[in-house]
Each structure stands twice: as C-alpha cells, then as structure tokens.
Design goal:
Elements: E1 2-9, H1 13-19, H2 23-29, E2 33-40, E3 43-52, E4 55-69, E5 73-82, E6 85-99, E7 102-114, H3 122-152, H4 167-182, H5 188-220
Antiparallel strand pairs: 1-7, 2-3, 3-4, 4-5, 5-6, 6-7
Keywords: Membrane, Transmembrane, Transmembrane helix
Protein name: Carbon monoxide dehydrogenase subunit G
Pfam families: COXG (PF06240)
Length: about 220
C-alpha cells in the first residue's frame, strides 16, 4: 500500500519540523492516539485505537525517525501490531519553505498490513490511512496557527487545546475518501449524503442500545 501527498502549513519550516516530532502535540491531535512517548533517540512508543470498517481494536508499536536533516527532511519507520492485525511501513517527509510563513510538506511511503484489518479490503484501508494522515496534519496546522497567533499578539498563553477527531468524525473522513476514489465527481454529493444518513442512523441505534443496557442494569440493581 502506497501513501503519498502534500500539505501546506502557514508557518516557518523550523516550527513545522519541530511540531511534527513533538510527542506531546501529536498525541493530542492524532485520531485514536492513546499514547505517544519518546523512549530513545528519535524513537517513540505508540498506542492507537482505530476503527476501519467492521474491524476495531488497538495497535501498539514503535516509530523510529532516521536520516534527520533538520529542518528539511526525515525518514519514518513504523512497526505495530494488535488484535486487528499488524502494520509495517516506511515513509519519507520533506519540508520546503515556500515563503516567510509558508511551508510545503510532501510525503510518500509504503506500508504493509495483515491480519483482520487486511480483510476489509485494500481500498478501505488506504482510505483510512489517508483520513488518518489528513486529520492529523489538520490538527498540527491548527495547533501551529494558535501558537503563531499568540506570538504575534505577544501574549503569554498556555498551549492551545486541540482535540483529535472522534471516531465518528474519523469514520466520515474514511467514507469521504472511499467515495472520492470510486465515485464520479458529479455523483459524489448523493453518496456523501447517503453516507451521512447511514452514519447518523448507526449513531442513533447505538445510543438506543446503550440506553436500554443502562435501563436493564438499573432495574436489576
């Protein structure tokens, strides 16, 4: 599975490079991230819970950064496993200064997944990976924008609070990714509307089931 793309940050390259390697920041904005801890030189331990189609579970593993050329580029190696299966991959990140406060990030990588998560199909797994990447980068960008704004106003503020997308928002990102990959542009609004309707129905049914369970537990007690 190949993953590639680009993203534009409204910030200097040095700041972007630093934020992309800050575990305290990344752990707050990556969807489903439960832990991201620096355990050695450019080595992190991570725990991530995520839903991909009918497969739900936790991954634990390590992330290693190498070939660091600050603030221009680095290589990232991922090795994780859990109940849903395993994922191994390597990616390369490059940052280019486009202006005083604009940085273009380009990334490309190869990943291999196996186990239950592979059973949902490559297209869905790829869409999930793209959604996870985009939502994470959106979170980093929002954090950077808040920091830049505080500095511009010369305010001494606590770190901005940026919340990672919840599982519902992440699922919508995956659904939109699948639709954009397989549906012609002129028919996408119809499919997006249908996906939203189905997702809302699923949320309502789950909330009702949860309420019934609570009522049963209360009556039993």
């Amino acid at each position: 599975m190949k993953i590639d793309g680009n993203y534009t940050f409204e910030a200097p390259r040095e700041m972007v490079f630093h934020m992309l390697q800050d575990p305290e920041v990344l752990s707050k904005i990556i969807p489903g991230c439960e832990q991201l801890t620096l355990v050695g030189d450019n080595e992190y331990e991570a725990a991530l819970e995520i839903n991909v189609g009918p497969v739900k579970g936790k991954f634990k593993g390590k992330v290693l950064l190498s070939d660091l050329n600050a603030p221009e580029s680095y290589t990232m190696t991922i090795n994780g496993n859990g109940a849903p299966g395993f994922v191994k991959g390597t990616g390369h990140v490059k940052l280019e200064q486009q202006g005083v406060n604009t940085t273009l990030m380009t990334y490309e990588g190869d990943a291999h997944v196996g186990g239950r998560i592979a059973s949902v199909g490559q297209r869905l797994v790829e869409s999930a990976a793209k959604a996870l990447t985009k939502q994470s980068l959106d979170g980093v960008n929002q954090y950077i924008e808040a920091v830049v704004k505080a500095k511009a106003e010369k305010e001494s503020l606590p770190p901005p609070k940026i919340e990672a997308p919840n599982q519902t928002e992440f699922a919508m990102g995956v659904a939109k990714g699948v639709i954009s990959d397989i549906v012609p542009p002129n028919r996408r609004p119809l499919y997006v509307g249908a996906a939203i309707s189905l997702l809302l129905l699923f949320i309502i049914l789950r909330s009702r089931q949860s309420s019934k369970k609570k009522s049963t537990q209360n009556s039993d007690s």
